[in-house]
């Protein structure tokens, strides 16, 4: 569904990824692990069309994404939950959600405002709060809810557990596990090893701007050498 | 004592009237900047264009209301031409190039005004509906100037509602907060920018036509208002509607009362205010980004 080949991406003259390749199969969850600064977020920004310096190939359902503006990539069915969550501070929680819902709402009953509020009841109590009045966990829930309202075919998540209390991490795990059960394709970037490997169908490890290891969650759980060398677990 | 009170009331109304003109100009400029970090220094020239078009339209049709209707539309159309021919191409050219090109546009407009309308100051008649003077609170005040204040308040209320209550308003606020994230939600920020740009041009044209009966219409009226407008935008906070309102009121009052209370200091008062605000609140009074 998503294929990346020989991706070189960076900022201006600085290249961060060097010939990275990976792919997400339909209905599967791919976890990308790697230490700080190896280029995980940069890869996701390249997929969304947010970077100026990109070479290589990115295809979604066979269609080349490189050169398309972010809004076109989003309308093709890719939703993005960035590392910084990027809730709009000038908008209320409801407006943040409606921004996505009005554009991608489908009558066939996929994701609706009601349904995401059932998924994240905390947000229902916060609907009329400003985007900045939320806790870190609530912001993450809002970012995921907003992405779901785009009724995406591929959900991209950048370190959804970063900085969150264990109890919130658990509830986000439950939500993502539910989405996985429904067959939503996901590309999950994480540093939380247990969280990522328990959700993923496939695992890739990034180091030095490229993929240095590929395998299944079971493989990497058993491979302590890879964990020590590339993840510092 | 009554003489004193009426002095203050009249000057307050004068200040409000200037504030409303500044608001009509600065609101477009600030939202355009907030959305896409684009500075259009020719915004003042569009205001002058509105005044000139207004003068011609009202002379041609024999009615003030022709100016009121035609100027915003004509200036918005010129804005579309500018957008397609120049601004769209300059979007990624960096602030320095944008400033230089739109600065150059000021001179292009100056010469076009000279060619089209000559160097002699022009005037325009008030609408019959609002001609003459109105007596209230023990003062006598030109009715048309009250109309300007009222119109400014109506536009202000309409824009506040548009921005706070509609989907377009939410999209504009989201785009100002974080353009990249707005785009990732499928929003074509460039198209929103275009709509806002046209609206800003129309408001500048409206301000020109509305100001024409109270000011003399000259080729340099756009450059004269550009500086206070930019000061309003900076004081208020780039990209912020509330900032444009607060900044317009501040500058309108400081400029008006400065001119009558301390004429020697009036010329620097606005800049002193700018300096104080920038020292205390570098992002302006109401920064748009949280
Ligand atoms: N906006 C930017 N401009 C220039 N360099 C950047 C920018 N953002 C990130 N970088 C650099 O690119 C490299 C990779 O950053 P990236 O954010 O992709 O890492 P990451 O794998 O997501 O790390 P983390 O786990 O800390 O989020 C880093 O060296 C970083 O300093
Ligand atoms: Mg990152």
Features:
heterodimer, A: 233 residues, alpha/beta, Rossmann fold, six-stranded mixed beta sheet, four-stranded antiparallel beta sheet, 10 helices, 10 strands, globular, B: 290 residues, mainly alpha, two-stranded antiparallel sheet, 2 strands, binds adenosine-5'-triphosphate, binds magnesium ion
**What is the third-level CATH name, the topology of the domain at 1-77 and 154-160 and 184-233 in chain A?**
Rossmann fold
Overall, the morphology of chain A is globular
Identify low-pLDDT runs of chain B: none
Tally the helices of chain A: 10
Mean pLDDT of chain A equals 93
* CATH C-level of the domain at 1-77 and 154-160 and 184-233 in chain A: Alpha Beta
Work out the strand percent of chain A. 25-35%
Strand order of the largest sheet of chain A: 6-7-8-3-9-10
What is the string of helix and strand elements of chain B? HHHHEEHHHHHHH
Shape of chain B: globular
Instruction: Give the distance, in angstroms, between the N- and C-terminal Cα atoms of chain B.
Output: 46 Å
Percent range for helical residues of chain B? over 70%
Question: Helix content range of the residues of chain A, please?
Answer: 25-40%
**For this structure, what is the CATH homologous superfamily of the domain at 1-77 and 154-160 and 184-233 in chain A?**
P-loop containing nucleotide triphosphate hydrolases
Number of helices of chain B: 11
Strand order of the largest sheet of chain B: 1-2
What's the quaternary structure here? heterodimer
Q: Number of DSSP strands of chain A?
A: 10
Radius of gyration of chain B: 19 Å
Question: Element order, helices and strands of chain A?
Answer: EEEHEEHEHHHHEHEHEEHH
Derived from helix and strand composition plus strand pairing, the structural class of chain A reads alpha/beta
């Amino acid at each position: 569904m998503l294929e990346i080949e020989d991706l070189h991406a960076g900022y201006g003259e600085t290249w961060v990824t060097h010939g990275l390749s990976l792919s997400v199969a339909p209905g599967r969850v791919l976890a990308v692990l790697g230490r700080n600064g190896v280029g995980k977020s940069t890869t996701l920004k390249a997929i969304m069309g947010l970077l100026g310096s990109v070479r290589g190939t990115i295809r979604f359902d066979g269609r080349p994404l490189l050169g398309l503006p972010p809004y076109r990539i989003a309308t093709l069915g890719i939703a993005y939950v960035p590392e910084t969550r990027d809730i709009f501070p000038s908008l209320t929680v409801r407006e943040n959600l409606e921004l996505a819902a009005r554009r991608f709402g489908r009558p066939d009953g996929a994701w609706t405002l009601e349904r995401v509020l059932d998924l994240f009841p905390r947000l229902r109590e916060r609907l009329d709060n400003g985007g900045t009045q939320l806790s870190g966990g609530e912001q993450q829930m809002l970012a995921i809810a907003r992405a779901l309202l785009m009724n995406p075919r591929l959900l991209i998540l950048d370190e959804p557990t970063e900085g969150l209390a264990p109890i919130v991490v658990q509830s986000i795990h439950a939500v993502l596990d539910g989405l996985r059960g429904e067959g939503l394709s996901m590309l999950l970037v994480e540093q939380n090893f247990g969280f990522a490997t328990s959700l993923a169908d496939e695992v890739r490890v990034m180091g030095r701007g490229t993929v240095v290891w590929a395998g299944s969650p079971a493989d990497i759980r058993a491979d302590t050498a890879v964990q020590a060398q590339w993840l510092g677990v | 004592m009554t003489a004193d009170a009426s002095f203050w009331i009249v000057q307050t109304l004068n200040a409000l009237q200037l504030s409303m003109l500044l608001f009509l100009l600065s609101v477009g400029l600030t939202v355009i900047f907030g959305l896409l970090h684009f500075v259009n220094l020719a915004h003042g020239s569009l205001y002058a264009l509105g005044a000139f078009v207004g003068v011609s339209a009202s002379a041609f049709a024999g009615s003030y209301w022709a100016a009121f209707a035609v100027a915003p539309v004509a200036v918005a159309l010129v804005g579309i031409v500018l957008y397609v021919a120049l601004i769209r191409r300059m979007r990624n050219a960096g602030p320095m190039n944008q400033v230089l090109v739109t600065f150059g546009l000021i001179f292009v407009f100056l010469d076009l005004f000279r060619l089209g309308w000559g160097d002699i100051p022009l005037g325009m008649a008030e609408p019959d509906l609002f001609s003459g003077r109105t007596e209230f609170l023990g003062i006598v005040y030109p009715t048309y100037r009250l109309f300007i204040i009222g119109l400014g308040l109506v536009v202000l209320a309409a824009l506040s509602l548009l921005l706070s209550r509609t989907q377009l308003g939410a999209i504009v606020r989201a785009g100002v907060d974080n353009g990249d994230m707005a785009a990732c939600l499928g929003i074509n920020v460039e198209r929103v920018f275009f709509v806002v740009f046209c609206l800003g041009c129309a408001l500048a044209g409206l301000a020109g036509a509305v100001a024409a009966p109270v000011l003399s219409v000259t080729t340099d009226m756009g450059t004269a208002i550009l500086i206070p407008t930019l000061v309003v935008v900076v004081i208020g906070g780039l990209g912020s509607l509330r900032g444009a309102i607060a900044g317009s009121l501040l500058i309108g009052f400081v400029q008006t009362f400065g001119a009558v209370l301390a004429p020697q200091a009036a010329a620097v008062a606005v800049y002193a205010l700018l300096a104080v605000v920038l020292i205390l609140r570098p992002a302006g009074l109401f920064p748009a980004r949280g």
